[in-house]
Design goal:
Layout (H helix, E strand, L loop, with lengths): L3 E6 L3 H12 L3 E7 L3 H10 L3 E2 L3 H7 L2 E4 L6 H10 L3 E5 L6 H14 L3 E4 L6 H6 L8 E7 L11 H17 L5 E7 L8 E7 L5 E7 L6 E7 L3 E6 L4 E7 L1 H6 L4 H4 L3 E5 L7 H13 L7 E2 H32 L1
Parallel strand pairs: 1-2, 1-4, 2-3, 4-5, 5-6, 7-10
Antiparallel strand pairs: 6-15, 7-11, 8-9, 9-10, 11-12, 12-13, 13-14
Helix pairs in contact: 4-5, 5-11, 7-11
Amino acid sequence: MKPVRVGVWGVGTWGEKHARVYHALEEADLVGVYDHHPGRAAEVAARHGCRAFESAEALLAGCEAVSIAVPTVSHRAAVEQAAATGRHALVEKPMAPCVADADAMIEAARRAEITLQVGQVERFNPALLAARPHVRSPKFIECHRLAVFQPRSLDIDVVFDLMIHDLDVVIDIVGAPPSSLSAVGVAVLSENEDIANARLEFADGCVANLTASRVSQERLRRIRFFQSDSYLSIDLFEKTGEMLQVDVGRLRAARANPLAALTAITRSRLQPVGGEPLTLELSAFLGSLRGEAEGAASASSGRSALAVAEEVRAAMKRRARQWSSLSNAAS
């Protein structure tokens, strides 16, 4: 198996992780990195045994595929440049700052006949992978994603920074975007919303409640699935999960006897497959280029999550205007 020559464009905190993983993957040949801060590029290149390129053009000339981990506002330009040189691309989440940019990126990839995928890395969380075979037509989904404050990604709100992971997971599992939604958000330590809650309703009757915060005093990433005959709780941070399975027939027969009804419920631990999510994602991306794997999240999936994130953002702004109007009327 000939390794794919790959590069990393943008080596901030997350981009360096791409470089580290590519350096360790047998199916990848990390040719180098580029960053608009030459010193940072040189530091990361030395750490991971590759070249620090002096320009994005030079990086693209030396590789077959590239991870793009530049600021979100620059994703479109970077993808269009990669497509113009015929280089496959994995762009970090959120795919773009707006759906219009995402559409332009998809069109550029289509014209150039390159593969464009999106780094929705939570899809590859071992706990979620273990749960997926058991998630069937959920009635209610609850997501909590809490993070301590970090002075990065403050150019985007918490929906585009954190909640978009859960939006992608929920849309992918339900198989369709929500038919309606409502949301509320509050800015605490930045100029954008740092805490947000969204309620998504789907045409099949499923309801999802998502909460995200980047000003929490604890770290929490959890998803719960409530189904007609089971309940699954997934700790994405700890990469663990459990499932409660209900024997509906036995439960109905035992309605008159609450103690006997307990025997109708079976509790079990999920068995996550080992592996770092980013390693699994980048390996899938490379595998898809060789026609051997499904790949990371598709560009169309990245666009879907982005479109719903835009709707959540708009709903938060509407709610904020309503609060402002009520406050002004009261005063």
